[in-house]
Amino acid sequence: MNSEELCDLVVSALEDVKAQDIVRLDVSDMTTVTDWMIVASGTSSRHVNALVENVSAVVKAAGRRPSGVEGESGGEWVLLDLQDALVHVMLPKVREFYNLEKLWSITPSGDAAATDG
Question: CB neighbours (10 Å) of residue 69?
């Protein structure tokens, strides 16, 4: 499975559990850490954790093992590291505050280049 297929799988898993405002960012030209950054919102801490659990289960079933998960205890912002994709699931207020989409969509020329998915 290549990184784009992994990204599609993650987005589908998020949609299955009713994630809100899913955005996928191709960051392969900006960092060597990952190819994709996927950002989504959950309606509550419990929903955020359920979204991450579903993504983790789906990618494991597809043969990929997550490298790590951070933030599960708080449930306001959970990061799931899938090597080729970093999945950020947040409560709307946290997402608005950190605005990762804007941060990671700024190109060297200063233009925004986000892709909604």
Answer: 16
